[in-house]
Amino acid sequence: MIRQLVNRSQAWILPTMLVLGVMSAIVMGYSIYMAVRDINLIKSASSFVGADNFSALFQDARAWGSLSRTVVFSVSATAVELLFGLGLALYLNRPFFGRKLVRTLLLIPMIMTPVVSGLIWRVFYDPNNGIVNYYLGQLGLGDKHNWLGSTDLAMVSVIIADVWQWTPFVFLILAAGLDAMPSEPLEAAEVDGASSFQRFYHVVLPLLAPSLMIAFLLRIIDSVKTFDIIYVMTRGGPSLATETTNMYAYIQGFNNFNISYATVINLTITVIITFLFTTLYARLSKARR
Amino acid sequence: MNKGAKWGAFSLLAVSVLVGGCGSNGSNSGGNAGASASGSAAGGDMPYKGKEITVLLEGHSTSNAIQKLLPDFEKKTGIKVNLEIVPYSDLTSKALINFSSRSGRYDIVMDDIVHGYGYVNGGYVEPLDSLASNASISGDFDQADFVPEYLNAMKIDDKLYGLPVYGESTFLMYRKDLFEQYGIQVPKTFDDLMEAAKTVKEKSNGEIAGITLRGEQGIQNVYVWATFLWGFGGQWLNEQGMTDLESPEAVKALQFYKDILNQYGPTGVANFGWQENRLLFQQGKAAMTIDATVNGAYNEDPKESSIVGKVGYAPVPTQTDHPKGGASSLAVHGMYLSKESQNKEAAWLFMTWATAKEQQIQSMSIDPNSGVSSLAAMKDEAFLTKFGAFKDTMLEAIANGNTQYLPQIPQSNEIINNTGVAISKALLNNKSPADALKEANGLNNKLLSAK
Amino acid sequence: MRKRNAARSALFYAGVACLLVFFMVPLVWLISTSFKNSRDAFAIPPKWLFQPTLDNYANVFDRSDFFKAFGNSVFVSLVSTLLCLCLAAVTAYALAYFQFPRKSKIMTFILSSRVAPPILMLLPVYFISVQLGVNDSYALLIFMYMLMNLPFAVLMLVTYFEDIPSEIREAAFVDGCSETRTFFKVILPLARGGLAATFILSMVLAWNEFLIGLVMTGKMTQTLPVLVTSFMTFQGTEWGPLSAAGTFIMLPMLVFGIFVQKHLVKGMTMGAVK
C-alpha cells in the first residue's frame, strides 16, 4: 500500500504543490480583496470601489513609464550578466594555480547583503568624493562623471551594480554545468579537427543550454523584482530615471500608504510577467526537445 | 547505506531544530507571563512592576542613548521595555501596518510630525493630556523643559499627541574664510545668494562650488526646496486646502533652485541626499549650503570635518518681506502613544522618562546630537563645547521655524513625493519648472479632492 | 614556444587579477572602512593604509540586540533552508524522472510562483498572521523564507538531477532498490554537489532578505539585515557601525562558502560515474 503510494508521482509532488498552491490561493484571494477596495493606511476605514483602481492604473503615466524601465533594466542586466558570466566560466574553466581561491572569492558579491552593497556603490559613484571618479581621473578618463545624478547614466550605474552582484551567480551555475560536462564529445570534436570556436558553438553551447536556460530564467525573474539596490542608490530618481515598477509599487504602498493601489500595480505586473514567462518557458522547453 | 542514514538524520535534525525553536519561543513568553504575575503581586512603590511595553524607535543617536540608559528605567519602575529600532525610511510603514491591523504590538512609536497627522487621522494614537494631568505618574514630565516650539509642534487641534525627542530647523552655512577672501557679504536675499555663489565659483576658477543643496528626488530635495518656496512668498496649501504649487512664486522658487544648482552647484547634485551634501561641504568643496541645523555639529567636529572653525551660520535668506510663512523648517520627531496599548500608564512613564532632562543630559556624553529637545541639555557643558559655534543661530532658526514648512496634513507623504519628482525633473531639464510643478499640482489636487 | 606560453599565462593571470579587482573592491572597502574613523573613511584620495580603530566593532557589539539578531538569523535561515531543500529534493526528483500528465504545467506553475514580487505576498500574510496571532514568531519567518526559496530550489535541483543519467537509476532498480531507497542512496549522493550549491544559494537569499524581515519580525525575531539597516538614520548612514556590522554579517556566509566550495568545484559527481 505505502509502496504503491510512494511509487505514484503525486506523492512526490504533493507537499510542494500543497504549500505553493495554498499560499498562492490565499495571497491571490486576499490581494483581489484589497484591489477592489480603497485601503489607505492613514484612513481607518475603507470601502468597496470595484475596478476604480484598475482604471486609475491605466491612466497612470508614471506606472507605464516604470514598466518600460523595468523592461530596460531586467533585459539589459540579465543579458550582460549572462554574457559576462559565460565568459567568466569559460575563462576560468582550466586548471591554474589558485583556481579554487579565485572561485571562492568570486562568490563574495553574491554573499553581500544587497542593501549594504547598494550603499557601497552609492558611495563609490559619488561624483566628488567617490573612488570611481577618482581612479578614472587618475587613469586620465575624466573625473567628473555624473553617475547617479543624470538621467542618462543613472540606469547604467544601477545596472553595473546589479551586474557586479549577480554575475557570480550566473558564473556559479554555468561553471557547475561546465564541470558536469562529459569530456568525450569535446575530445571527439578535437579529433575531428574542429576549431575552438566550432567546438564552443557546436559542442559546449548545446550541452550548456540547460544551465544557461536556468540562469536566464532565475536572473530575469529576480531582476524584475530588484528592489534593495535601487532603493538605496537612487530611490527611483533622478527624475524617475531608475524607477522600476517594483519601486513604484513600493512608493505607492509604503510611502504613500495606498495599499490597494500598490496591490493593483503588483497584481498587474505579476499577471503580465507570469504570462510572458510561461510563454517563454514553454517555447524554451520545446526548443530544448 | 551510510549516506541514506546521514540524510535521514539531516532531515530529523531539521525537524527537531524547528520544534525546539517553537518550544523555546513558547517557554519564553510563558516566562514573561510568570514574571508579570509575581510582579503585580509585589506591587509596592512600583505600581507598574511586571508590565511589559514595546517601543518602536527610529535609528537615531537619541535612540542609541535611550537603549544604553534603559536598564535604569527598568530597575526604577520594574517595567519591562522591548525596544525595536528600525530605519527611519521604513519606520512609518511598519508602524502603520501594525496600527491598521489593530495588532496592539507597539505601545509607543517614535516618528516625524509629518507622519503624526496620518496617525491622528487614522485614529491610531492617543491624546496625552489626561495622562499629563495625572500627577502621580508625571513625575518625569516637565513641560517647561522642552523647547517650546517643539512641544507646540506636537499639538494638533490643541491636543498634545506626542512628546518631542528630537528637533531641528534649517539655516545657511557659509565659509567665513572664503567670503572674506572674495569680499562677499552674508546673503540676505536669494539674489544675494545667487551673486555669492557666482562669485565663489568664478573666483575659485570652478574649483569650489558656489553652493550645494540636496537634489535627491523625494523628501530630500523637498526638505530644502521648501525654504525657497516660502522665501519667494509661495505656500503649499491655499485657503481652500488645495495645493498651491502652480503659483508664480512657486515657479520662481523652482527656477531659482534649478539655476543656482546647475550653474554654480557641484557635479551630481541631482542625486545628493543629506549625506552627500554634508560631506561635500565639510570637505571644503562648496562655499555655502542650506540644510538642517544639526549639520553644524558635523562641520565643527574635527574627526569629520576639514573646515572646523571656518563656518559662519546665518538665518536662511528670503526674497520677499511678506512671506506667507517662515522659510526655515521646524522638523520635530516625537514619541506617540498607541490607542491599542494595554498599558498606557506604563507607556507614559517610559515616554516621560526617555524625554526627561536627566536622560537628555546623559545622552550628551553617550551619543551627542544637537537636536535634543530639552532646554536643560542645551545648557549642558558638553552641548556648549560641541555645538556652541552655531547654537545661537540654531535657536533663532527654531524660533522662526515654520510648523507648516512641509504640508501638515495626512496626505503629506504623497504630496512630498509628487513634488520631489517635479523638482528632480526641473533640475535635470526634463521639464520646465512651470510644467513640472503643474504636473505635481494636478496630482496633488486629485489626491486631495479624493476625500 | 615556451616563451609564448609564459607570456600567455602571464596575460591570463593579469585577466584574473582584473576580474578579482572588480569583484573584490567593494568588499575590501567595506572591511577597511569598518576599521576606519569617519574622516579616513571618506578621504580622497582613498586611504588604503591607515591607523586602524576597533571603535566601530565595539559600538556594534555593545548593542544589546546584536547577538540576539545574529542568533535569529542563523536559526531562521538555516532551518528554512533545510526544510526547503527537503521539500524541493523530493519534488525535483519526481519532476526529473517521472512521466505524468500535466508535468510541464506543474513545472510552469512552480516557476511562476517565483515571479510575484515579495510585497504582493507580504501584506496578506501579515494581516492574516495578525488575525491568527502568529506574527513575530520564528515559525512564520521560517515558513516565509522556505516559501521564498522553494520554487528556485526545485528548479535548480531538477537540472542537477536531469544531468544524472537515468541508467544509473534503472540500475538501482535492477539491484532491487525501491523508489525511496534509490532516491536516498543513489540519486541524492550523486547530486550532492547540486544540493550543496542549492543549499548555499537559498541560505544566502534567506540570510540577506530585508523586506520580509522588516515587516514580519519584532523584538524577539529581528534578523541581522533589519538591524544593520537601522544604522541608516534620518541623519544619513552611520558608516562606522554599519560597515562593522556589514562585515560581520558576511563572515558566516563567507566561511560557509569556502566550506562548501569543495562541493561547488567538484560539481556533479560525473567523474565517479565514468
Percent strand of chain B equals 5-15%
Shape of chain B: globular
Distance between the termini of chain C: 35 Å
What class do helices, strands and sheet pairing of chain C give?
mainly alpha
Q: N-to-C terminal Cα separation of chain B, in Å? A: 70 Å
Main sheet specs of chain C: 2 strands, antiparallel
Task: Average the pLDDT over all residues of chain C and give the rounded result.
Answer: 83
**Helix and strand pattern of chain C:** HHHHHHHHHHHHEEHH
Structural class of chain B: alpha+beta
Order of the strands making up the biggest sheet of chain C: 1-2
Q: Count structural domains of chain C.
A: 2
Q: What percentage of amino acids of chain C are in beta strands?
A: under 5%
CATH topology of the largest domain in chain C: MetI-like fold
Mean pLDDT of chain B: 87
Low-confidence stretches of chain B: 1-43
Give the CATH level 1 class of the largest domain in chain C. Answer: Mainly Alpha
Do you know the CATH architecture of the largest domain in chain C?
Orthogonal Bundle
- Topology of chain B as a string of helices (H) and strands (E): HEHEHEHHHEEEEHHHHHEHEEHHHHHH
Biggest sheet details of chain B: 5 strands, mixed
Describe the structure.
The complex is a heterotrimer of chains A (289), B (451) and C (274). Helix content of chain A is 75%, strand content 0%. Chain A has 14 helices and no strands. Chain A has helices at residues 2-7, 9-35, 52-58, 61-91, 99-106, 108-111, 114-125, 131-138, 151-180, 184-191, 196-224, 228-233, 245-255, 259-288. Chain A is globular, with a radius of gyration of 23 Å. Chain B is α+β, with helices and mostly antiparallel strands and 451 residues long. Helix content of chain B is 52%, strand content 12%. Chain B has a 5-stranded mixed sheet with strand order 2-1-3-10-6. A 3-stranded antiparallel sheet of chain B has the order 8-7-9. In chain B, α2 (61-77) links the parallel β1 (52-58) and β2. In chain B, α9 (219-231) packs across α17 (412-427) and α17 packs antiparallel against α18 (433-449). The longest helix of chain B has 41 residues, at 2-42. Chain C is mostly helical and 274 residues long. Chain C folds into 2 domains: 2-41; 63-268, Orthogonal Bundle (MetI-like fold), CATH 1.10.3720.10. Helices cover 76% and strands 1% of the residues of chain C. Chain C contains 14 helices and 2 strands. Chain C has a two-stranded antiparallel ribbon with strand order 1-2. Chain C is flat and about 70 Å long. At the B-C interface, α1, β2, α3 and α11 of B face α4, α6, α7, α9 and α12 of C.
